[in-house]
TrEMBL record:
GO terms (BP aspect): glycogen catabolic process
Organism, scientific name: Celeribacter halophilus
Leader sequence residues: none
This protein's name: Alpha-1,4 glucan phosphorylase
GO MF entries: glycogen phosphorylase activity; pyridoxal phosphate binding
Cofactor(s) of this protein: pyridoxal 5'-phosphate
Pfam family, one: Phosphorylase
Lineage, top ranks: Bacteria, Pseudomonadati, Pseudomonadota, Alphaproteobacteria, Rhodobacterales
Length: 796
């Protein structure tokens, strides 16, 4: 006891010291921003102690290091994460309160670091947390985008984008490393000189490192997230300046900075843009140089590389790291091509995150050759070597004038993994069918997971508290212990407390929505939530069509015993994805009409919350009653939102797609609302030319809902606004919204029925929590360490 009072007063001193000497403010005049910065620095100091010790230990033990290369790290806010991981919640709160400050206000002042689009980037952030919790020596490498994912707002129901500016205020978590600057070349030509191949780039951009420490649970280990920023090699031309051409004088700097300026906002969908390829090479090449420099500081035999390092390519975005490592080993370090290829192959691994054909990166070889002429030669040689061993044209990383990054990654990698059992199987059957036949042991599965620290302990403190009181706190780093909750679920008193937690979380969400958006939600209603990127394959339009049909039915019979629901949506659409933006507009228009309808508003409300990000997810997930995971089977590689909801006690309504399959296996089929076609049925159904019309003819509810889109019910001021959506669904419907509608409707009515029995529902919700322990990213990372990296924890 005495010790905790002591630490607490020490921490108060630390906070005051940073407020005074780091921020130069007196408590009397300090603003929330000043307090946040002071608190962040005080917390950071503690993290740095662990960080330094972890780095030292890695050098001493010469452990294998894991390098996670990713274009995206959707880390969100860091202060709350740091406080929770250091187990300093009470100390921080008390220290702030002693100055009359409220911790929630201070935590909410931090901008989200939105350096990612969605699941892929958030998975990378969960992995960093797990790597540090487990104590596996690891570095995340990525890009320090000045502008993260755009901010979304609505004007008359339409999505409007504005730049996200998280770096406008000082960012307290990073350490600039001006001594780590690496020149990265582009373009130019390739010469053969004195028996050696030499690439002379035409343009150089400098990559400067910024490090953020990532601390694991209980502050036992901390790894580094190293992000690269673009800088000019010669930032300023004094001659031009003196001659009066001020703009041209800084042009180099401006051009170099564009490389780390913005995150490309396409999710699962890449266009062959030159700047994107430059970004990919920029951060991959800087990372490879850095990895080799660290290796060289401890070793002098390159053959040891595969024993000492494992590189994970997060999708194909960093795939060029393979040819780059090979180039350095062969051209600069003098290894034979075969030896360089052998070493590279044993260091590289590749995670595939999507089977969508438009998302499998391909580059026009003229563009590629213009930017990276030597790499194109090397890819040809890699391809030739592979072809010699396995003469089969379709396996090539180059064909039809394109460089195919998926095939290249597969050929280069020692292990290739999918992100859920179904996705991995489909990978073997479809995109990598032939390559898998040649290398049958290369593909492995590592089903995704989420960090329980952020996605339960910190975002849902009331539930975390109840769990800890029931089974102790070891579950936080060993999530499968949640199964120990099962006996308590049989106890009505305990179940009532579980329900109280959910109700309190819903009430908090209602307060937030009322305060920020001026909309009063009915806290008694079922909170039915679909939050994720907007995409046709995720089928937000299936959800809103069913909502429309349900609304029509309620209007037909307003006095029936309807189960009140609040339908909550959130998610961003890529700027150029017009159809997805029209679906947002439609949902907002439906919300406007339905929420104003006196005949239905007590039992049905619809809301689309703007600017979905990690922080909003942290509010929504704990307050959900029902999780919507309704993608066309075979299209969602895994999903991770589905895991967060189940963990926080929201049963899923979903298709057998991605990790839903494994979630249902774990929570039990009686605790999951299944509907829809299976992946192979989807493929077959698509062969029928009139699948949509057949479905419409068979279900008058669907026909009526589509008719409401056509007749301008939701857009009387512009009656034709949604005709194209109705037409698309009637005449094309690639994602089979119509074909799955009737079964979705059936499953929704089953949900209604189940929700009416509140005790049974509470049990179902609690079983979802108790049985979701397997979906921890700690389990996933243990899988990578064992099956892919051969890496070990350095925490004793
Ligand atoms: C994604 C998949 O679409 C998603 O299903 C998966 O959960 C994540 C993480 O593995 O990866 N692939 C992809 O390109 N994005 C994803 O979110 N953007």
């Amino acid at each position: 006891m005495a010790r905790s009072v002591q630490t607490s007063s020490n921490f108060r001193d630390a906070l005051l010291r940073h407020l005074t000497y780091t921020m130069g403010k007196d408590p009397e005049h300090a603003q929330p921003f000043d307090w946040r910065m002071a608190l962040s620095h005080a917390i950071r100091d503690r993290i740095v102690d662990t960080w330094v010790a972890s780095t030292r230990k890695t050098y001493e033990q010469d452990g294998k290091r894991v390098y996670y290369l990713s274009m995206e790290f959707l880390i969100g806010r860091l202060l709350e994460d740091g406080i929770f991981n250091l187990d300093m919640v009470e100390e921080a709160k008390e220290a702030l309160e002693s100055f009359g400050m409220d911790m929630r206000t201070i935590l909410d002042d931090e901008p989200d670091a939105a350096l990612g689009n969605g699941g892929l980037g958030r998975l990378a952030a969960c992995f960093l947390d797990s790597l540090s919790t487990i104590g596996c020596p690891a570095y995340g490498y990525g890009i320090r985008y000045e502008n993260g994912l755009f901010k979304q707002s609505f004007v008359d129901g339409c999505q409007v984008e504005s730049p996200e500016t998280w770096l406008q205020e000082p960012h307290p978590w990073e350490f600039e490393r001006p001594e780590v600057r690496i020149n990265i070349g582009f373009g130019g030509d390739v010469h053969f000189e004195n028996g050696k191949t030499v690439w002379r780039p035409a343009e150089m951009i400098q990559a400067e490192a910024f490090d953020t420490p990532i601390v694991g649970w209980q502050g036992r280990w901390a790894n580094t997230l190293r992000l690269w920023a673009g800088r000019a090699v010669d930032p300023f031309d004094l001659d031009l300046f003196n001659s009066g051409d001020f703009a041209a004088a800084s042009e180099h700097e401006a051009l170099a900075r564009t490389i780390s300026r913005v995150l490309y906002p396409e999710d699962s969908n890449e266009a062959g843009k030159e700047l994107r390829l430059k970004q990919e090479y920029f951060f991959s090449a800087a990372s490879i140089r850095d990895i080799l420099r660290r290796f060289d500081s401890q070793h002098n035999d390159l053959k040891l590389l595969p024993e000492k390092i494992a590189i994970q390519l997060n999708d194909t975005h960093p795939a060029i790291a393979g040819p780059e490592l090979l180039r350095i080993l062969h051209d600069e370090r003098g290894l034979s091509f075969e030896e360089a290829l052998h070493i590279t192959h044993h260091c590289m691994n590749y995670t595939n995150h999507t089977l969508l054909p438009e998302a499998l990166e391909r580059w026009d070889e003229r563009l590629f050759g213009r930017l990276l002429p030597r790499h194109l030669d090397i890819i040809n040689r890699i391809d030739d070597a592979h072809y010699k061993a396995n003469p089969h044209r379709t396996l090539s990383a180059r064909s039809d004038g394109q460089v195919k990054m998926g095939e290249l990654s597969f050929i280069m990698a020692n292990r290739v993994n999918g992100v859920s059992a179904l996705h991995t199987d489909l990978m073997k059957q479809t995109v990598f069918k032939e390559l898998n036949a040649l290398h049958p042991d290369r593909i492995v599965n590592e089903t995704n997971g989420v960090t329980p620290r952020r996605w339960l302990h910190s975002c849902n403190p009331a539930l975390s508290g109840l769990i800890t009181e029931t089974i102790g706190e070891d579950w936080i780093a060993d999530l499968e212990q949640l199964e120990k909750l099962e006996p308590s679920i049989e106890d009505q008193g305990w179940l009532d407390r579980f329900t109280d937690v959910k109700n309190a979380n819903k009430a908090a969400l209602c307060d937030y929505v009322a305060g920020v958006h001026g909309v009063n939600l009915n806290p008694e209603a079922m909170f039915d939530i679909q939050i994720k990127r907007m995409h046709e394959y995720k089928r937000q339009h299936l959800n809103i069509l069913e909502t429309i049909a349900h609304w029509q039915e309620i209007r037909d019979n307003p006095t029936a015993d309807w189960v009140p629901r609040v339908k909550i949506f959130a998610g961003k659409a890529a700027q150029g994805y017009h159809f997805a933006k029209d679906i947002i507009h439609l949902i907002n228009d439906v919300a406007k009409l339905v929420n104003a309808d006196a005949a239905t508003r007590d039992v049905l409300q619809v809301i689309f919350l703007p600017n979905y990000n990690v922080s909003l997810a942290e509010r929504l997930v704990p307050a959900a009653d029902l999780s919507e995971q309704i993608s066309t089977a075979g299209k969602e590689a895994s999903g991770t939102g589905n895991m967060k909801f189940a963990l926080n006690g929201a049963p899923t309504i979903g298709t057998l797609d991605g990790a839903n399959v494994e979630i249902r296996d774990h929570v039990g089929k009686e605790n999951f609302f299944l509907f829809g076609m299976l992946a192979d049925e989807v493929m077959q159904r698509r062969m029928m030319h009139d699948h949509a019309q057949q479905a419409i003819n068979a279900d008058p509810r669907l026909g009526r809902a589509l008719e409401a889109l056509r007749d301008g019910t939701f857009s009387p001021e512009d009656p034709g606004r949604y005709t194209h959506i109705a037409d698309n669904l009637t005449w094309s419907d690639y994602f089979l919204v119509c074909s799955d509608f009737t079964d979705y409707w059936r499953a929704q009515r089953e949900v209604d029925k189940a929700y009416q029995d509140r005790k049974a529902w509470a049990k179902m919700a609690a079983l979802n929590t108790a049985r979701s322990g397997w979906f921890s990213s700690d389990r996933t990372i243990h899988g990578y360490m064992c099956d892919i990296w051969g890496a070990k924890s350095l925490i004793p």
